[in-house]
Specification:
Aminopeptidase; 2 domains; globular; 4-stranded parallel beta sheet; Rossmann fold; alpha/beta
């Protein structure tokens, strides 16, 4: 995999967090921005000619949740099942496990440095929502209410994280590349592994998207830029016994090696 040379930061003009992040980022250096007029989760709102000129797309965005938790989060876009918020059913975007990992490490580092971890949860999220594009990409978000979206410190920390990750991104031959299956939408077990091990995680298929089928597994693997070494299973978060067995049979059928989180934790 060639290193990415040209990054594009995309935000919607309607998105308070996106504007907050891009405003701070524009003060940190010369970056390529694309501010779209409508919501960026809908593919039809994007100028694909503009997007296709770049190697990697970073969507700077707000995050909304019913619980209204304060979060700084990263995830790949796509839909394992229904496409209620942009994109297409059962289709996900290409993403890079290595870039997700390095961005997540920087986000944790910068949030701690600026004392934001007292207020915000730094987390990966399962792959969800649109748009559907054919360029490697990810979302980096501030959640979950207007107060957080406009929080200047949160906007600065995300901007600094984007800058740092772009400037220092490098290939790492020592990383094992994994897709992740199971567990809740915010991924406490996968967060730990992404931070504390040499495993780099790309797409995450959460428990609520199970049962696993062949198409989902193929999408997760084929839309990871690097060659996937194995599937990482949150065994306790794989649903009932039937869903666990279903997941294993799909993995076996496609000859995908898998490891349970407990086994990874015992390594370290």
């Amino acid at each position: 995999m060639a290193l990415y040379q040209n990054f594009l930061i995309v935000a919607s003009k309607l998105d308070l967090a996106g504007i907050n992040i891009t405003t701070h980022l524009s003060q940190l250096g010369n970056f390529n921005f694309y501010l779209c007029d409508k919501e960026a989760v809908y593919t039809e709102n994007l100028d694909m000619d503009k997007i296709n000129k770049y190697d990697f797309i970073i969507f700077a965005s707000k995050h909304q949740s019913e619980k209204q938790e304060k979060t700084l989060s990263i995830h790949a876009p796509g839909n394992w099942r229904d496409a209620d918020f942009g994109g297409e059913k059962g289709k996900v975007c290409p993403t890079s496990a290595l870039f997700v990992k390095q961005l997540f490490e920087k986000l944790n580092e910068n949030a701690e440095k600026h004392d934001l971890t007292r207020h915000y949860k730094v987390t990966l999220e399962a792959t969800h929502h649109g748009p559907l594009i054919n360029k490697p990409c990810l979302f980096i978000e501030i959640g979950s209410t207007e107060a957080e979206w406009k929080d200047a410190r949160a906007g600065f920390v995300i901007a600094q994280t984007i800058r740092d990750a772009i400037e220092t991104f490098k290939e790492n031959p020592y990383n094992e590349i994994a897709i992740a299956i199971g567990g809740p939408h915010y991924c406490p077990n996968f967060n730990k592994i992404q931070l504390k091990s040499n495993i780099a995680i790309s797409h995450i298929i959460p428990q609520y998207s199970l049962p696993l089928n062949e198409e989902m597994l193929k999408e997760a693997i084929n839309k990871t830029e690097e060659e996937v070494d194995f599937a990482l299973l949150d065994w306790k978060g794989l649903g009932n016994a039937e869903q666990r067995q279903q997941a294993l049979s799909v993995l076996d059928k496609l000859y995908v090696r898998y490891e349970k989180i407990e086994e990874i934790n015992k390594r370290g």
